[in-house]
Amino acid sequence: MMQRCHKKKTQVPLIALIFFVFIVSTILYNERNIQQIHQDQAHNDDGHHQPIIKQIPLYKLSPPQNNTHPNRSPVVLDRYSTCKSTVEYSGRRAEWDVPVPESDNRRASLETCDLFSGKWVFDNTSHPLYNESDCPYMSDQLACHKHGRPDLGYQFWRWQPHNCNLKRWNVTEMWEKLRGKRLMFVGDSLNRGQWISMVCLLQSVVPADKRSMSPNAPLTIFRAELYNATVEFLWAPLIVESNSDDPVNHRLEERIMRPDSVLRHSSQWEHADILVFNSYLWWRQGPVKLLWSTEENGVCEEINGLGGMELAMDAWANWVASKVDPLKKRVFFVTMSPTHFTSQEWKPENDGNCYNEKTPIEDEGYWGSGSDLPTMRMIDRVLSRLSSKVSVVNITQLSEYRKDGHPSIYRKFWESLSPKQLSDPTSYSDCIHWCLPGVSDVWNELLFQFL
Ligand SMILES: *[C@@H]1O[C@H](CO)[C@@H](O)[C@H](O)[C@H]1NC(C)=O
Ligand SMILES: *[C@@H]1O[C@H](CO)[C@@H](O)[C@H](O)[C@H]1NC(C)=O
Ligand SMILES: *[C@@H]1O[C@H](CO)[C@@H](O)[C@H](O)[C@H]1NC(C)=O
Ligand SMILES: *[C@@H]1O[C@H](CO)[C@@H](O)[C@H](O)[C@H]1NC(C)=O
Ligand SMILES: *[C@@H]1O[C@H](CO)[C@@H](O)[C@H](O)[C@H]1NC(C)=O
Ligand SMILES: *[C@@H]1O[C@H](CO)[C@@H](O)[C@H](O)[C@H]1NC(C)=O
């Protein structure tokens, strides 16, 4: 865990560099994209009465606290936060008041069928579950058909577990499960894609004047009056408090996090009835800086991404262990979403990526370099200790097969592309996110099985 990052990087320098540059920009664009949705929506609804949306309390962007005073809470991180100096990680860990229990294996014994082990079946009668153009909340980052994707095969695949069948998606039944409740997705842009998928899956049966979407903010809320329910998304890419918690502006020189505080986010998510967390890709961009809450002089410690993620997961696990009553709250964790940047991995002697891929990988058990095994093992360890309180939506293997499911060049890009880029589509392909309708809908079908 304490391995220095540059050592790790030299093993795959080119891939790492391409990946880094790419992800930073795509994740950024994603945010503007949501604003775009709201603009489009406002535009479409021109002349119609828009429901008034309750103001959501936001965290302060530039708090006036004085962190040299020992009795005050530490300064809230924002995008202007900097480290006064940086030292190597000391090995320090937060001391939690409620220890997370040792591993309990209750979940394993209840499982009768592994829903995550199976294969993709082409089925154009049951899928897609909705049409791209019918969903007013669709994101321009994920609307691949609208952005010119000619092959629509990616929409027609159904997930078939080996030893059982998935319950068919039933939107009425899903709404009944959500009646009077708050369902909240918490995480990064992959989780936001799953949230948009869920909203698209659910919205069609609610009359337009009985539903609404709040403006883009750290917390964005889809509300269905008809069911007195909300489906919400909280932007929290590192789970813990960080300088990247602004959903629009987070293209930053350094990533600073508080390894001992989830409070900024947990104050928003603690009232939700059903919580769906994810976190992964942001930890793959290189080292992160730790600013402990007790550190008053702005001295940061630098740690590699995996180490940083483990500290963040610990802080989150502590929140779950101390605050979640499984009879009152359901908590899910969605595992790593794979990327497909290196087509050599599934097609030797080909140096492309997900661009122009039209069918899933059929090789059972296929695992590419986009899904980091040490991260998976760390997540396994953290989640095994929470198994009575957290259900795992293990999407990694099934999404690994879906090299065809990414937007590649068929999405909105916010920065203009150079002629050189345009002449080589693989150079700017998005092989991170997932077209909708598509793979993320199936993640939600899995969630539906567990509710
Ligand atoms: C912060 O608080 C300390 C101790 O009360 C005080 O000496 C210092 O002047 C304050 N700094 C600012 C910027 O207010
Ligand atoms: C489904 O796919 C089959 C085989 O490709 C095709 O013959 C059929 O027309 C398709 N049906 C629909 C509804 O798209
Ligand atoms: C999508 O649109 C097509 C053509 O308009 C229609 O036949 C089909 O039923 C729609 N599918 C869904 C899931 O709404
Ligand atoms: C969907 O669920 C509702 C409510 O549980 C039920 O009445 C209906 O029959 C279901 N529809 C299908 C197609 O199974
Ligand atoms: C709506 O749901 C909230 C919980 O999310 C509950 O407190 C409230 O009483 C419900 N309102 C109605 C009219 O059912
Ligand atoms: C998810 O599934 C993979 C196999 O596909 C397995 O190695 C891993 O342990 C699982 N993770 C969790 C948290 O269940």
Q: What gap, in angstroms, lies between the N and C termini?
A: 35 Å
Query: Mind telling me the C-alpha Rg?
Result: 21 Å
CATH class category label: Alpha Beta
| Largest sheet composition | 7 strands, mixed
Mean pLDDT: 84
The count of DSSP E runs of length 2 or more, i.e. the number of strands, is: 13
The residue fraction in helices comes out at 25-40%
CATH architecture: 3-Layer(aba) Sandwich
Dominant shape = globular
**Number of structural domains:** 1
Q: How many helices in DSSP terms?
A: 11
Strand content: 5-15%
Major β-sheet strand ordering: 5-6-7-4-9-12-13
Identify every distinct bound molecule in the structure, by name, code or SMILES: 2-acetamido-2-deoxy-beta-D-glucopyranose
The CATH homologous superfamily name equals: SGNH hydrolase
Protein architecture, described:
By secondary structure, this protein is of the alpha/beta class. It has a single domain, classed as Rossmann fold. Helix content is 28%, strand content 13%. The strands form three sheets. It has a seven-stranded mixed beta sheet with strand order 5-6-7-4-9-12-13, sandwiched between helices. A four-stranded mixed beta sheet has the order 1-11-10-8. A two-stranded antiparallel ribbon has the order 2-3. Strand 10 and strand 11 form a beta hairpin. It is globular and about 60 Å long. The protein binds 2-acetamido-2-deoxy-beta-D-glucopyranose (6 copies). One 2-acetamido-2-deoxy-beta-D-glucopyranose is lined by residues 116, 335, 376, 379-380, 383, 392, 394, 396-397.
